Amino acid sequence: MKLRVALLTAVLGMAVPLTPVLVAAPAQAQTIASKLQMLGEMTYVKVAGLKSTRRNGLLFVQATLANTNNVDQQVAYRVKWLDQDGFDAWDEEAWKPLVLHGLQQTNIQVTAPTRNATDFRIELHSPENSASQAAGAGPAASTQPRP
Questions:
Q1: For 74-129, how does the pLDDT look when each residue is reduced to its tens digit (9 = 90+)?
Q2: Strand locations in 56-104 (E)
Q3: Tell me: the pLDDT tens digits for 1-16?
Q4: What would the CATH number be for the domain defined by 36-129?
Q5: How far apart, in Å, do the first and last CA atoms of the chain sit?
Q6: Quick one: which of 33, 46, 50 has its CA closest to 75?
Q7: For the chain, which residues make up each domain, given as ranges?
Q8: Among 79, 82, 94, 140, which is least packed, fewest CB within 10 Å?
Q9: Which neighbouring-strand residues pair with 112?
Q10: What is the rounded CA–CA span in Å between residue 25 and residue 68?
Q11: How big is the CA angle at 140 (ends 136 and 145), to the nearest 5 degrees?
Q12: CA 43 to CA 55: how far, in whole Å?
């Protein structure tokens, strides 16, 4: 009996060619910062959480914004939707204004407008941030007439 098992094992071992086993490298952890584009340094508005999933084939994103100050903060945001190659998957969105009251946390939820969107970047702007004061960046600047 032992001889049969040994012969069977040897025959099966020769019949199966040795092939290398490919092990997938773990996906790089994507931080919240890698998904954000801050237009200037925001002192009091922080992104406290960020998650995404697919619903009915569309990318769904939820971000938690937090005001770390006692004073109300004005913020504007928009999402840039990207395809699998990193190109724009949709037209540029309009800025969406938001007021965060003192020490308030709120969730913003957005759904991709196309199934081609596989990634995203959230753009954030606040009139109180350093870029606005220095260069007039963001939504407020777009309402000013150009010389």
A1: 999 999 999 999 999 999 999 999 999 999 999 999 999 999 999 999 999 988 77
A2: 58-67, 73-82, 96-100
A3: 555 545 445 544 544 4
A4: 2.60.40.3230
A5: 95
A6: 46
A7: 36-129
A8: 94
A9: none
A10: 38
A11: 80
A12: 34
